[in-house]
């Protein structure tokens, strides 16, 4: 996520208020796995996202042997079957009973795919409420074979934060994604590429920390059921007050990526308006705490915007900020990927190299993100905006951090 925060005009309230947790009586406990309540009825009962244990309970509720749960699990997560009727190893009576009880797999149709010359494929999934979300598969090929496949997943339908250079922010916000709607993005990418996803980054549409409960549930499912190692998963944030500490308390072995984009508070506030609610020193203290609790280094994302934050002076200031904040950091530079109507420009190659040199000479570990899929509307939100231009409406209560 190229994440720069700004005030949210949709909900017309400061971010600190927008993300304030709901009253205590409404705070539900934080689950690490999706819950299945035996006998519970809901509008749609979705199998995707459930653990083997939950599936076992369902099988038993329907009078089936417990080994049927393994078969369900296999069909959902390994074979990626979309319809219950196609769970061919299961007895027809069981399949019919599941459907009659309102169960479904919970996979959304792929509405559109766009393939870039470098093999990056962007998918639009059409959710049950007809909203479109983007997800991107980014392969690394060696001798014609995919050696690494990264899924860049969305966590919200749109995004309320409206970062000025982000197409998703310009498209507005509708709602948080449910955990299974996050998991299904990974399965859709595996289906399209016909190979396993090796890495997942929460850098698609939305701010994951504003939907932390579902993100944690999806993380759990991706790790335990889809079998992607925790260390292969990155959760990205522009910084939402109090959420990095919450994430740290789960002691995940995943990478936290913080979108910094400026080496000082004053400049950051102009690029990341919500920084007013979450000063840089507080953000850095939370990052230090994350490293202390998880022993996982924090990656700082820094979008290089020509003439704004890309000088060697900014690099020197960034190096000082990181040295003053301790160790365990890595900087990931992202030369800005221009979007339609943006006032920002991509920095020259020379400016990028000078920035890298200045960081390296101060002994900061740095990498430059290769721009992938430029010809496939790959910047977050661009493709979705092509097909869904109607403004999305935010319900401020959806923005409450619920974990
Ligand atoms: S998805 Fe949201 S938080 Fe991320 S860059 Fe876009 S507007 Fe900012």
From TrEMBL:
Q: Which Pfam families match?
A: Radical_SAM, RlmN_N
Q: Where in the cell is it found?
A: Cytoplasm
Keyword Nuclease part of the UniProt annotation: no
One GO cellular component term of this record is:
cytoplasm
- Family annotation (InterPro entries): Aldolase_TIM, Methyltransferase_A, RlmN_N, RNA_MTrfase_RlmN, rRNA_lsu_MTrfase_RlmN/Cfr, rSAM, rSAM_sf
Q: Any idea where the Radical SAM core domain is? A: 145-375
Primary site of residence: cytoplasm
Q: Which cofactor does it need?
A: [4Fe-4S] cluster
Question: Which UniProt keyword terms apply here?
Answer: 4Fe-4S, Cytoplasm, Iron, Iron-sulfur, Metal-binding, Methyltransferase, rRNA processing, S-adenosyl-L-methionine, Transferase, tRNA processing
Name the source's superkingdom: Eukaryota
In Gene Ontology terms, what is one molecular function of this protein? metal ion binding
Query: Which terms under GO biological process does the entry name?
Result: methylation; rRNA processing; tRNA processing
CDD domains per the UniProt record, alphabetical:
Radical_SAM (cd01335)
Instruction: Supply the name of the protein.
Output: Radical SAM core domain-containing protein
Originating species: Flemingia macrophylla
């Amino acid at each position: 996520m190229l994440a720069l925060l700004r005030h949210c005009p949709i909900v017309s309230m400061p971010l600190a208020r927008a993300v304030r947790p709901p009253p205590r009586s409404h705070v539900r406990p934080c689950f690490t796995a999706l819950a299945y309540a035996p006998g519970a009825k809901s509008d749609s009962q979705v199998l995707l996202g459930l653990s083997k244990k939950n599936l076992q309970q369902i099988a038993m509720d329907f009078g089936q042997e417990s080994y049927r749960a393994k078969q369900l699990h296999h069909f959902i997560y390994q074979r990626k079957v979309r319809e219950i009727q196609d769970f061919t190893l299961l007895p027809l009576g069981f399949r019919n009973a599941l459907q009659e009880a309102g169960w479904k797999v919970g996979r959304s149709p792929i509405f559109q795919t766009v393939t870039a010359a470098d093999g990056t494929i962007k998918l639009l999934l059409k959710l049950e409420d007809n909203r479109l979300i983007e997800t991107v598969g980014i392969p690394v090929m060696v001798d014609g074979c995919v050696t690494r496949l990264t899924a860049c997943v969305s966590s919200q339908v749109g995004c309320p934060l409206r970062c000025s250079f982000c197409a998703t922010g310009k498209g507005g916000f509708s709602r948080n994604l449910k955990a299974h709607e996050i998991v299904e993005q990974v399965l859709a990418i595996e289906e399209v590429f016909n190979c396993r996803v090796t890495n997942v980054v929460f850098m698609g549409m939305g701010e994951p920390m504003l939907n932390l409960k579902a993100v944690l549930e999806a993380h759990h499912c991706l790790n335990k059921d889809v079998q992607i190692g925790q260390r292969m998963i990155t959760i990205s944030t522009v910084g939402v007050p109090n959420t990095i500490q919450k994430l740290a308390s789960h002691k995940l072995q995943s990478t936290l990526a913080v979108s910094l984009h400026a080496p000082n508070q004053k400049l950051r506030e102009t690029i990341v308006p919500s920084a007013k609610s979450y000063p840089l020193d507080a953000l850095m203290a939370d990052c230090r705490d994350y490293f202390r609790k998880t022993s996982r280094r924090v990656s700082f994302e820094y979008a290089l915007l020509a003439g704004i934050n890309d000088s060697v002076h900014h690099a020197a200031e960034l190096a000082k900020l990181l040295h003053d904040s301790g160790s365990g950091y890595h900087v990931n530079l992202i030369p800005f990927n221009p979007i339609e109507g943006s006032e920002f420009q991509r920095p020259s190659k020379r400016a990028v190299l000078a920035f890298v040199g200045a960081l390296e000479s101060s002994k900061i570990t740095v990498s430059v993100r290769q721009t992938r899929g430029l010809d496939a509307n790959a910047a977050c939100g661009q493709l979705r905006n092509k097909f869904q231009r109607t403004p999305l409406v935010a319900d401020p209560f959806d923005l409450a951090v619920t974990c």
